[in-house]
Design goal:
Helix content is 36%, strand content 19%. The protein has 568 residues and is α/β, with parallel strands linked by helices.
Length: 568
C-alpha cells in the first residue's frame, strides 16, 4: 500500500508539473477548468490511495487537491476574467446567448450587496421570493440572474440561469469564482451542539504550534494567517457561501496552509459550506438546539451529519450517544474523557482554579498534557483538537506545547476577575440546558462560597421549549439565579421570564429573581456576591450586540461585568 501510494503521488506529480509548465501560456481560466477536471477524475480513480499521507507529503508532488507547486499567479481570483458562459459551462448549465455574455466580478443573494458585474442569486424563502428583487439587483449593477425558474410571465431583465437549488448554486458559483481555494488548504471542520468554538480555537492553536500558518472561521469571528481577529457584519456562526469562499481565498493569498472552520447546522442545511473541500471533520456533541429551524432532534442531527459524511477522516466523541450512528461512515478515530472505549483517552484529570492537567493515551503513545482553562469538559475539546491536529501531522511535543500556551477563547469560560476581595466573575456562552449545567458544575468544584448565575433565553422562534429547562438547571446547579434578557427580539420579555420561572418553580425551587434589564441583572449579582463567591454570566459570551424589541443595541458582557465590579 505504501509503494502504491507513493507511486500515485509520483504519477500525479508528473502530471502536475506538466500542467504547471504550460500554465503561463494559456488562458488562466481554461487552465483552471482543465486541471480541476483532471484532478477530480484522478481523485475518483485513486480514492483508496489519495488520502494517504504519502500523497500529501510526497516531495515529487506537482498538483493535487491540497498542495501545488504551480506558480502563485495561477491561483488568482478567477472571477476577474471569467465570462458568464465559462461559469455556465463549469456548472453544466445552459450557456447564455453569445451577445449576453458579460464579465463576472462576484455573486450574492442579497440585492443590497450587489456590486457592478455581480451575479444575483434569487432564493425563494419561506416568506419572500428573491426574484422580487431582480430589478433592484439590476439597478445596482447585476449582470446575470440565477434561480429555480423565472416566476413571472414577462421576460427576465437579465441573462437567466435556471438551477435545481438556488442555495446550492450560490455556493457552487462562489467557489468557482474564487477558484476553489479550499483545495489548496488543509481544512478541519468542527460541528456539534456544544464545544464547537473552543475545539476550533484549540485546533487552530495546535496547527500553528506545528508550524502551519492557519486561519479560522468561527462564532467569535475569523482569523487570517496573521492571527488578527476580525468579524463578519452578519451575526452568523458560519457566514454565507460567498463570504466563506472569499475568506478562504484571502487565506490562500496570504500564505495560509490550513484553516479550521466551525460548521453550524444552519450552515450545513443552507449550503453555506457546500463547496468546501474537507480533510478532517470533528464531532463534539449533540443536544436539543435550534428545533425552531430543524423541527426535530433527528432532523437537526441529519444536518450536522452532513459534515461527517463529506470528510475523508472523522474525529468522533465516543461519549456522545449519537456517535453510534456515525461510526459506519468511513475512516475515523474516537476520543473519550469517560469510560467509553476510544483511541484518544484522557486519564488522571486534575482540575484547579488555574487549569487542567491530565494524561493522554493515544495512537501517538501516552503523554502528559496541561491546559490553562477551567472546566473539566474542556479536556474533551482538547482531545478532539489533538486528534485532528495529529491526523495532519502534529507531533506529541507540538501538541503539548500548543495546549500549554493556549490563551483561551473570548466568552468561553473567560475569567473577568479573580482579584482578592472581589468575587470571581466568569463570562461563558452557555445557553442550552446541558451546556449551562456543565458550566455550573465545573465552577462549583472550585467555588468556596456561593455560586451565582445570570441567564436568559432568546426570543423569537429560537426553540422556546428550552426556557423552562434553563430555569430548572440554573436553580438546581447554582445557589442563586438571576433571570434576565438575552436577545428577546419580538417576544415579550415577560413571557420568556415567566417560562424560566415556571421551570424553577416546577422543580420546587425559589432561589431566583427576575431582572429584565441585563445590565441591571449583572450589577445585582456582582454587587450582592461575596468575595468568596463565583458569578457566572451565561448566554451572551463574546457577542457584541443585544437584540431587544426590534432594536439591535451594542453590547459587551465583559465591559458590563467590569463596570459592576467597579461599583462594589
Amino acid at each position: 500500500m505504501q509503494r502504491d501510494s507513493y507511486a500515485a503521488g509520483y504519477l500525479l506529480g508528473l502530471i502536475g508539473k506538466t500542467i504547471a509548465r504550460y500554465s503561463q501560456s494559456v488562458n488562466p481560466y481554461t487552465m483552471y477548468v482543465v486541471s480541476h477536471s483532471l484532478s477530480k477524475a484522478m481523485r475518483w480513480a485513486a480514492r483508496p490511495v489519495i488520502r494517504s499521507p504519502y500523497l500529501f507529503y510526497s516531495p515529487l508532488l506537482g498538483f493535487n487537491r491540497k498542495v501545488s507547486t504551480m506558480p502563485r499567479s495561477f491561483f488568482i481570483h478567477y472571477h476577474q476574467g471569467m465570462k458568464l458562459a465559462d461559469l455556465a459551462a463549469a456548472l453544466h448549465l445552459n450557456a447564455p446567448a453569445e451577445h449576453l455574455n458579460p464579465d463576472l466580478t462576484g455573486v450574492t443573494h442579497n440585492a443590497d450587496w450587489v456590486r457592478p458585474g455581480n451575479i444575483f442569486v434569487a432564493i425563494r424563502g419561506a416568506r419572500v421570493d428573491g426574484h422580487q428583487f431582480a430589478a433592484q439587483a439590476q439597478a445596482r449593477g447585476a449582470v446575470a440572474l440565477v434561480g429555480e425558474g423565472w416566476p413571472y410571465p414577462e421576460r427576465a431583465p437579465l441573462p437567466y440561469l435556471s438551477v435545481n437549488s438556488a442555495r446550492a448554486a450560490l455556493a457552487d458559483i462562489a467557489a468557482e469564482l474564487e477558484g476553489h481555494p479550499s483545495r489548496q488548504l488543509r481544512v478541519v471542520g468542527v460541528t456539534g451542539t456544544d464545544g464547537k468554538t473552543t475545539t476550533s480555537w484549540l485546533t487552530l492553536q495546535l496547527l500553528r504550534a506545528a508550524g502551519w500558518p492557519t486561519g479560522l472561521l468561527s462564532t467569535v469571528g475569523y482569523q487570517l494567517a496573521d492571527g488578527a481577529l476580525r468579524h463578519f457584519p452578519a451575526h452568523f456562526t458560519t457566514p454565507e457561501a460567498p463570504q466563506v469562499q472569499e475568506t478562504l481565498r484571502q487565506l490562500v493569498t496570504g500564505g495560509a496552509q490550513a484553516v479550521v472552520l466551525e460548521a453550524s447546522s444552519h450552515a450545513l442545511a443552507l449550503d453555506r459550506v457546500r463547496a468546501v473541500d474537507w480533510d478532517v471533520a470533528v464531532w463534539t456533541h449533540l443536544s436539543r438546539e435550534h428545533l425552531d429551524f430543524h423541527g426535530t432532534v433527528e432532523d437537526y442531527f441529519a444536518e450536522k451529519r452532513k459534515l461527517i459524511e463529506r470528510a475523508p477522516f472523522r474525529v468522533l466523541n465516543a461519549d456522545d450517544p449519537w456517535t453510534a450512528q456515525l461510526l459506519d461512515l468511513g475512516e475515523h478515530t474516537t476520543y473519550s474523557v469517560g469510560d467509553s472505549p476510544a483511541e484518544w483517552q484522557a486519564l488522571d484529570i486534575q482540575e484547579s482554579a488555574r487549569g487542567l492537567n491530565f494524561v493522554v493515551r493515544s495512537p501517538l503513545g501516552q503523554f502528559a498534557a496541561s491546559l490553562p482553562m477551567i472546566g473539566r469538559f474542556n479536556v474533551a475539546n482538547a482531545l478532539a483538537a489533538m486528534a485532528a491536529a495529529a491526523r495532519l501531522g502534529a507531533s506529541v511535543e507540538q501538541l503539548q506545547a500548543g495546549l500549554a500556551s493556549f490563551g483561551g477563547v473570548a466568552g468561553r469560560m473567560e475569567v473577568v476577575s479573580s482579584t482578592p476581595g472581589q468575587p470571581r466573575v466568569i463570562v461563558d456562552f452557555a445557553h442550552t440546558p446541558p451546556s449551562l449545567e456543565k458550566a455550573l458544575t465545573t465552577l462549583r468544584a472550585t467555588t468556596q462560597g456561593r455560586l451565582w448565575v445570570v441567564i436568559g433565553s432568546a426570543g423569537g422562534q429560537r426553540d422556546p421549549s428550552k426556557r423552562a429547562p434553563l430555569g430548572e438547571v440554573a436553580t438546581r446547579c447554582a445557589d442563586q439565579a438571576v433571570f434576565t434578557e438575552e436577545d428577546s427580539r419580538d417576544t415579550p420579555l415577560a413571557d420568556i421570564l415567566a417560562a424560566m420561572e415556571s421551570g424553577a418553580r416546577g422543580a420546587g425551587r425559589s432561589n431566583f429573581v427576575s431582572i429584565g434589564d441585563r445590565r441591571g441583572a449583572i450589577r445585582h449579582a456582582i454587587t450582592q456576591a461575596q468575595a468568596s463567591d463565583t458569578v457566572l454570566l451565561a448566554g451572551k459570551g463574546p457577542e457584541d450586540t443585544l437584540e431587544r424589541s426590534g432594536e439591535t443595541l451594542p453590547w459587551n458582557e465583559v465591559a458590563q461585568a467590569q463596570a459592576a465590579l467597579a461599583e462594589r
